[in-house]
């Protein structure tokens, strides 16, 4: 099953500049795993070594915020990756 | 001898290269514009190799590696990370890689990294894959050693390898103290006797001190210097008691600061950059008059070096990784970068200073590459 992943500009160095990619998986974890296989290093920039989404990032499946990486993803869904910056 | 300075800033990496007289400097970069660069370090065993500790405000921390003197960079396949926490254990995640140190000359490809929160990591493949140093990160005393974080988080820094013995290591933990291992990092003991800890209710504690920067002399590795939150110190091993050589600094200047750098061949010569550590700790040049101080007798006396630096209203802050030498002898070049984005050079051992770059982002590190 594949979904669409919208890649924010800070992570596009991994996707060759692509603002969106297709990725396979039925959970957020599997989708991130597929991204990692194709764009090595991208997962650790979003998810720490304890499998927690980093403090200044949010993931959404469509409009629903991801609170656990086991959250399901359906065919045709869009995984949004949002980054927050502050402090100039 | 070719020389370049690598400047790590809050918004990317820059390089400065001099003409033959080290008078005119050419700035290039930025590389990794917008990335927070804490440290850029050349591998003396393979001078074409450099490692860079990077993160951004939102993305997780990582390490980049260059094998062509910094022209191109590739991300580590497995950046420093703590092991997965066991059930019921407090989970730890690397917030930033703060410090990089090449391993012993006999251990090609070995590197150490220090993180915030307090963590030590080791790579044996040139910085491509990093493993936690269990003897420090999971030491039964680690929760006590690393219990007091500063507002910027605990910082693991000043990782030093004894050039005579790859198993003899030192590291420093801000708000923790200096620690020593004689078994390659399997176990660690505090090494803080004689250091003041004025901020603690009991100043005579074995750890909990606040080293800002520790330096080990490469030609005389029994000689260590330390710029601490509470003074400047020297330690001659195998002694275990630090001597406060900052007491010889002028009273009105004091002996507070972040960096301390050593002469490449003379173990009695070191430079510091005093900062205001009074009241709420402004950490700026004292009275707005920046000066470097040099000792040439192991800390018995200090000489003020301020020719060429601003005479007044210059409130500079220089962080612990933001001062270095170019390892040249004689006429050793001394360099420092400020949080206001200026780089200053004293190419005659600091006797006089020139600003060689300005308008850079907040400078976190200044390192020399041959």
Largest sheet of chain A: 5 strands, mixed
List the uncertain runs of chain A.
Answer: none
In the CATH hierarchy, the third-tier topology of chain A is known as Ubiquitin-like (UB roll)
Please write the string of helix (H) and strand (E) elements of chain A. Answer: EEHHEEE
What value does the average pLDDT of chain B take?
96
Estimated share of beta-strand residues of chain B: 35-45%
Query: Helix share of residues of chain B?
Result: under 10%
CATH level-four homologous superfamily name of chain A? Beta-grasp domain
Biggest protein-protein contact in the assembly: A-B, 21 and 19 residues
Rounded Rg of chain B:
19 Å
CATH architecture of the largest domain in chain B: 7 Propeller
Overall number of strands of chain A: 5
Straight-line distance between termini of chain B: 7 Å
User: What general outline of chain A do the C-alpha atoms trace?
Assistant: globular
Radius of gyration from the alpha-carbon trace of chain A, in angstroms: 12 Å
Order of helices and strands of chain B: EEEEEEEEEEEHHEEEEEEEEEEEEEEEE
Query: Which percent range fits the helix content of chain A?
Result: 10-25%
| Known CATH architecture of chain A | Roll
- Looking at the structure, the CATH topology of the largest domain in chain B is Methylamine Dehydrogenase, Chain H
Largest sheet: number of strands, sense, barrel closure of chain B: 4 strands, antiparallel
